[in-house]
């Protein structure tokens, strides 16, 4: 780019001279160049594309077994040991048989090993997603005529509904449940893959951390409520739709007298052991290199007690039942069911993507490497698309297992292969051993895993002190999840987050600045003491964009803080001419900037120039440009100069394109300044020249 001739001087300071922009290419030329670049093919380019799509082909070549292998094997074994009981337990949440949870854990670990960019994230079954899958499965079971509260292949209750489902007579409850789950999983994966292809990874940033924390809290309460019937051994109807939590609690209270004593005692013992072990692990985590496999120990002991004590036959305690070994043949998901659950898959895709990307970025920052959000979407999406053909359900990254994975020495995703091998061993040989495991024990494992999410309620007071708006988003999201539904809570949290963002943009902070001693720096005069206001100049800072949504608030803030309603006074002078008396008008000093009432001040306002500090002015739109132009016109009619300081390149470009600065470089130099202090000095120097000229005349 060519620059202008020698930079002109203004006083003693240098003046910014804008470079001449290059001649822009036409749209057809730009499109043609991009197509040529995209369609250019070579061996290095093809290999680079393969490495981008399958990151394992890049980092495996740099793998150092002497440094990484021991930690990866240790963390993989620990995660595999933890994964087996959680997979069996979380099948209760999803309303599916335990074997499908093991399938899901196996395939998700292998696929993310190949496609993921995070070295530490553990992808697999996640309690919140299992809950959402279970709600969709229960709803479709009811619509098909099955009883969701029954286990096994119960008969169809409503034969008229069953006739509407082709082939349903040959497919029992469990068969139909996994058909719904795989259809939902495939739709969720398709959404996530499309988001990755169209580079929509940034969309997950709109699910703010307070929203995700509140959603986790509300969903945890919903999960706890859904597991109470297993903890107590009470048969209650499966409620669906709005207020599911409230209606379930009412049903539990009515059926409390029918609780199974064996399940209640077992639940109390197992919960006590699990919670005590977790508390001990938290307090001694710095001393223990490997966390205690408490869930596995509890499940093994409970299975042995249930088997030899014959708790199912003697006390009627519900057990997991037969868990087959091996793999079943792959099957394509039902297209008709995919259309029916397409809307439900949207919330699953958003939640899974948001948690996966946020966890990947969090651990990447803490271990000094980078991840690609769009590739993470592709990886998580493929963890749902491909396993959907192998009787799996929705997966995402899980925080608890990722923390354990990091704490046990994980260095790369080789640990995921080790975890998959542990799950494969259970699938091929050990799964039938859990036949007599009580369902209340599985519910205890689920409830104990909610401890961390439920304890987040203690962070709410601190969040309120830090940001009331974020605390409101947290509380509203959690309350809506509990009182209405999980999907409604996610939608309410997203809307409140966006409204909070809009509200902060619409009413940003405005301040009048003063000089810090003899320095060239300026700060808020209302916040700091001992500042010196520049003589005859008002320095105004607006900490936000200037757009159509906040243009009125910008003017109200400026008029209130400077004490001069330039718009009304200029209009009044224009209407009444030079006969306007100096004593007419009203004072605005001390008024709230947000006040809708604007009153006039005397003509002698006490200043001759206004400097707007644009350092925090993020952008201008057409309405903001019109406000600045009208403001300059009104101030000029009153004999007041309007100067802009610290404008960003984007704001300067908008001012140029909007005609605010004119075509000449000299006009820009008189209105734009690189710092507030240079603008104040220029305003005072210009006013001094006017006074000297007036005195001479």
Describe it for me?
The protein has two domains: 53-145 and 173-503, no CATH class; 510-570 and 603-695, 2-Layer Sandwich (Transcription Regulator spoIIAA). The model is unreliable at 1-12, 152-164 and 578-604 (pLDDT under 50). It has 697 residues and is mostly helical. It has 29 helices and ten strands. The protein is 58% helix and 5% strand.
Keywords:
697 residues, mainly alpha, Transcription Regulator spoIIAA, 2 domains, six-stranded mixed beta sheet, two-stranded antiparallel sheet
Q: Main beta sheet: strand number and arrangement?
A: 6 strands, mixed
Strand content: 5-15%
Query: Count of helical segments?
Result: 29
**Considering DSSP H and I runs of 4 or more, what fraction of the residues is helical?**
55-70%
- Which class best fits the helix and strand makeup? mainly alpha
Note poorly predicted spans.
1-12, 152-164, 578-604
- The order of strands across the largest sheet is 6-5-7-8-9-10
Brief overview, please?
Helices cover 58% and strands 5% of the residues. It has helices at residues 27-39, 43-53, 56-59, 65-94, 98-115, 127-144, 159-162, 173-197, 209-232, 244-254, 261-283, 294-309, 311-315, 335-340, 342-366, 373-385, 399-407, 414-430, 439-449, 451-454, 460-466, 468-483, 486-506, 551-562, 566-576, 622-637, 649-657, 665-671, 676-696; strands at 9-10, 13-14, 123-124, 396-397, 510-515, 522-524, 537-542, 609-613, 641-645, 672-673. The protein starts with 8 loop residues before the first strand and ends with a helix.
